[in-house]
Amino acid sequence: MRLSVIGCGYLGAVHAACMAELGHEVVGIDVDAGKVDALNRAAAPFFEPGLDETLRKAIDSGRLRFSTDFADAATAQVHFVAVGTPQKPGENAADLTYVHAAIDALAPHVAPGSLVVGKSTVPVGTASVLVQRLQAVQPEATLAWNPEFLREGVAVTDTIAPDRIVYGLPSGADGEHAKALLDEVYAVALGKGTPLVVTDYATAELVKVAANAFLATKISFINAMSEVADTVGADVTQLADAIGYDARIGRKFLNAGVGFGGGCLPKDIRAFRARAEELGVGDSLTFLKEVDAINVRQRERVVIRLREALGGELAGRRVAVLGLAFKPDSDDVRDSPALDVAVRLKGLGADVVTTDPRAIENARARHPQLTYEPSVEAALRNAAAVVVVTEWAEYRDLDPEWAGELVAGKVIIDGRNALNPLTWRAAGWTYRGSGRP
Ligand code: UDX
What is the DSSP string of 63-111? Predict the structure, then answer.
């Protein structure tokens, strides 16, 4: 099929590349000329494992290109809108400026009978407004809502082989037409038996924010347990294993630590609350305020643990912070707990030296006041303490003996419960995890 993807960030660039990989003819449109140039050279402007290779293959096949000109989308049968919906500055609500701008710029180029598909995460009720905006310009276009559940770090796999597909469709003939087109787009995944939920706009919009709210709640739940575990000397990792064996609960997303971040979970739970308040059902989501508060509190807990381990004083102490990205296999520092911990420590007067395998440049652009070292070795040298805040494999696998030779003080704060306390203690380190005795 001929597809266009409007907005080529973490979501759109991956979607465009993967749709081409699946055999469709795709044009990705973005207003940022630098991003478009990079993507046309198969060099994604962000780190996502496997993406550059997928881009290269698709571009070489002739099925994928990127452009800044919306007119290049005109021949597409299906247009995906994948622009960002960031948090409004100083508010909890989502900023829909980019979604509106995308629809307005695209609408004049949408051919009669074509389908526009929203993939961006939006407040419930957005699609029913956008369809009017679209049809005011192109009355013969249809709108569908098709939320995206990809995780950074495994985005290519998640897009090619999603665990479910959701269509939010209008009723009647328009809905049937949209379903037929989407079935063709996703023929490969559907052919493999991927579960499909066909529903209305509002449900499709809600599915996405509900999924992220649930995941955020799960993480904050285990972090709340880790706070209790800390006070009674219990072990939250064993607790997670034990409750995780219950299939109704499940072990995934029960890793206590410095909490969730990234471009989705934090802003999505805030936008969901803001939308519920607008709708007069704010009470239903009050718990998400607590989920958010528990999450942010974990950053301070790492700082407190470090201060205690260093005998109460942080000012002037050299601290190696391992990790800046919000999670491993990503260079994304949006709302990153790791970066926030580094900034807090710096604010308290610590001599902070940070490192990360991929996220240094993104972190530096936001916080030039921090010291960045490309190698773990340089970051560890002469540190009075080490803080692990992103569980990259190379930090998980650190050799405590080797690290012990480099540092000035053998104190390690494991902000992700990613290390083995026994081996670190055996090598003479003071080890402190989260909710671990
Ligand atoms: C998330 C959703 O998983 C995805 O479905 C949606 O499309 C976008 O938002 P992503 O932001 O890529 O994806 O990250 P995810 O893997 O969900 O992790 C989110 C955060 O939670 C990370 O900071 C991670 O470190 C943290 N986390 C995850 C924990 O603190 N503990 C856990 O047990 C799991």
Answer: SEEEES-GGGGTT-SEEEE----PBPTTSSSB--HHHHHHHHHHGGGPP
